[in-house]
Every structure is written in C-alpha cells, then in structure tokens.
Design a protein that fits this description.
2 copies of one chain form a homodimer. Chain A is about 30% helix and about 30% strand. Chain A is built from 6 helices and 9 strands, in the order βββαβαββαβααββα. In chain A, β2 (about 25-35) and β3 (about 40-55) form a beta hairpin. By secondary structure, the first copy, chain A, is of the alpha+beta class.
Chain lengths: ~240, ~240
C-alpha cells in the first residue's frame, strides 16, 4: 500500500555527536539536478528530516527518517521545539527542491524538531540511502530551509540541559580525567575554560570523586581519574533546590 | 479579507493560574446544539485553543486565540510540546464538533502546546467571546479531544521547571511567609509537605533570607517574612553545577 504524505507537517532531527574532541552534527547532502539534462543545479546540506505520512505518529516519523538515512534505529530522541513560521520556505532553491519532490512550496509547512546526543565512537552509520556525514557544529555553512535556525535552537537547548542536568557523564567513560571532562564541556558550550579555574570548580563539586587510580602509561605525572556519583549529585541538588521531601 | 484556516495545525494554550491557595487552569466551555432544533447535544470543556490561519506564526495564533477568548493579551507564553498522534481525534463527540465547524475530523491535525503561569489576582478576564473560567487542576473532569493529556504534559513541565528554576518567586510577593511559600509549592506539586521538614529545608537554602520584619496583626506569634535573593541563588547554582567561569 502506498502511504500518502502529510503535505503540511515534517520532522527534523538534530543529531549531535561527540567524538572525544569536538561536537558534531549529522547532516545529509541535498543535490538538485535538472530533470532533462541531469546537470547539477545546486548541492548543499540539510538536517536529517522529511515529511511525515498521514496518520503517522510524530516520533515514529522521526525514527523512520533517521533509520532510512543512516541505519541508526535505536537512539534517544527528544522533541525540543516546533517551527511554523510562514517564512520558513522563502529561499528560491528550497522552493525548487520542494517542487522537484512533487510538492507545493507555498504550503504552510510546520516542522517538529527532535534532538539527540550520542557518542560518535559507539555508533555506526550504515548509509542506507543518501550521503550522510558528521560536521563540526561551527562549520556547517548555510543549510537548506531554516535549518540553521533549528540547529541554533537545538544547540541552546542542549547547552541549557548541560548546565541543569547531569548530561555530560553519559558521554564520558565511567572513569575519566579532568582533561576529558573539560574538553567535553568546551566542545558543547563552544568556549574555552581556564584550566586552573575549571579544576578549582571541580574541587567544590562533591559529586565528582577523585579515585586513587591513575591512567597507566609513560607520562611523568599520570593524570588522576574521577568518578561521577549520581547519588551525591541528586542529594546536593535536592538539598538546595528541591522542597519535595 | 477573509483569512483561510490551516486545516492541519492548531495551537492549544494551557494557562495556569495561582490564586494564593490553589493551582487552576483556564478552560473554555464547548456546547454543541442540533442545527435544526437548537437542542443541546453535549456540553463540556476544553483548553483555550483553536486552528491557526494559513501563513500565521504559531505564537501569534496562540496569542490571538487567547485574546479573542479572554481579553488577556500580554502574558508570557512558552511553547512546551507538540501533539500529533493520529488518534488525537477519536471520540465521537469531538468528530461531531469538528464537523459542526465545517471541517473534516479525519484530517491528521497536529497541535502545538503553549503554557503560561500567572497570578489570578493580578489578571482580569474580559470574556470577549465564549464562556471561559478557572478550574482547579485536579477538578477538570474529562476534557474534549486529547486535552487531558496536553494538560498532564504541561503540568509535568511546570513541576519540572519549579524544581530547576526560581519560578516560585515570580508568584510570591517580594516579602513572603513560609506558609505562603509552602502553599504555593503544594498547589503546584499536588502534594502535602510536612511543615517541620519544609522549614528545615528552607533553613539550608541560603538564598531564602529571613527578614527582621514580621506581618503586623493580632497574631500571638506574627509570622516572619522572607526574601528571595536571586544573586545568592545563581551563585549557589553556578558554584555547584555550572563550569562556565
């Protein structure tokens, strides 16, 4: 059975990945060729997204699209914002692209944004369909549609979460060095921290527990390993900010 | 110029209000009458919401609907979640209602949820259009469409924010008693706190500053007033959870 496309609703996934040094985002190549001559009209990149089917759940659509493009079918996705500005599709090349898909660029299309954050070293892209690749978040250039705006909003949501929830420790190994931790924070926040100040802050955070173990190697002063105690974190947070007993 | 309605997109507003003792939500009455006889078919309540116009911004639509229904035109609205399940409109009376508006209940309609929290004592509903009133959140009964689900999601978003952000102090007077504060927390969280435990917690929170002033009156032991220090709150939070310098 051929499923009908919902003309007015799409989903877009902002899949962030950390590769131990940089924050990256998964983008898909978009190429428009002349129907007759086959000549390339333009080539650029967009977030992973597409229209949903009529009577399809929003999150199922997001998962289906991600799976079709990348073979990644089992990651945590969180809905973060819905974009519905009538000026979303105003660039001529976006209109051309939509027409080439047999759709009407003057439709008022609303897109529901999902985001995820994963460890690039632990995930394998299977490239089922189009060209999909990781790009550093600061080097994405001009994306199709309003996808730069969607990426910016996802990034600010991610940064806000990093400050309010113990998100960082899901991307760090169970035992980590302060250099690994500082690298992760810098990558996501997009800023450089002073090493001394960063370590002074860590020393105050009782939920970051220094271990006796050190990384084995040839280093003159092997770095100390730390452990994140979720119990101490929750206790500290609740004691200071939460009135539920 | 008559504006066309977007057949597939609506917005719904969950307007929470605190009246110094209870958490309430703004609901609108929905009445369906037989077209010929005028006889009442059903009467129930929904959140304040409606379809958007084609080429209208989502947030503008939310504000327009709220203004049309209540005359409230200037409150803080925050987008919190988009609901797009194909089973959203499955009850027979919801289908009847949609048909009575000249629309097709088999359309796959996605609704974008906005929420707000305001002080009922400081806002005046002007009842511009339909019957709109405040209801305690625990006594809303069965709402139209999937609005119980939307209300639940808004409530859990609000509770989560109350634990992670200094939201409570926007609804309390500048100087408040611990009883006022406990009442607010209980109303939003939907639980009762033990008075002694609540006060023990407050004593640990350096950003809640006891004043020398007390409420003047005939009470044998007039209650002490407290003040919320945003500076101390931010300092405490940053010192313990935030690595930005």
């Amino acid at each position: 059975m051929k499923r009908s496309i919902h003309q007015n609703i799409s989903v877009d996934c902002v899949i962030f990945g950390f590769d131990s040094s940089e924050l990256k985002v998964l983008l898909v190549e978009r190429e428009l060729h002349d129907e007759k001559t086959g000549e390339l009209i333009f080539k650029d990149r967009t977030l992973t997204g597409n229209h949903i089917y009529l009577h399809e759940e929003l999150e199922s659509a997001a998962r289906r699209i991600l799976d079709d493009l990348t073979g990644i079918d089992d990651i945590y996705l969180e809905q973060f914002f819905t974009f519905g500005s009538p000026s979303r599709i105003s660039k001529e090349k976006d209109k051309q692209w939509i027409r080439s898909q047999g759709r009407n660029p003057d439709e008022h299309i609303v897109t529901v944004g999902y985001f995820s954050l994963l460890d690039i070293n632990r995930v394998e892209i299977k490239h089922k369909d189009r060209n999909v690749a990781w790009y550093p978040v600061g080097e994405v250039g001009e994306l199709g549609f309003d996808h730069n705006e969607i990426l910016d909003k996802a990034l600010s949501t991610l940064r806000d979460k990093l400050m309010k929830e113990p998100l960082a420790y899901e991307l760090l190994p169970d035992k980590f060095t302060l250099t690994q931790m500082q690298t992760l924070y810098q990558a996501i926040m997009g800023v450089e921290y002073d090493k001394g100040n960063f370590r002074k802050k860590v020393a105050k955070m009782k939920y970051l527990i220094p271990l006796d173990e050190k990384i084995v190697g040839n280093a003159h002063r092997p770095p100390r390993l730390y452990f994140f105690s979720r119990d101490v974190y929750e206790f500290t947070r609740k004691q200071l900010f939460d009135f539920s007993v």
